[in-house]
Amino acid sequence: MLPTPPQSASLPTDTTHRYTYPGAWINTFVAGGLVYLRLSKSENWSSPWHTYLPVPIIYLCLNIFLVVTPFIPPNSDWNADGYPYYAFPLVGTGVLLLGVVYWLLWTRVWPRWSGDGGVAEFGFEGGGEDDDGKSLREEEPLLEHRGNRGYDYESINS
Question: Domain locations in the chain?
Answer without folding.
Answer: 12-114
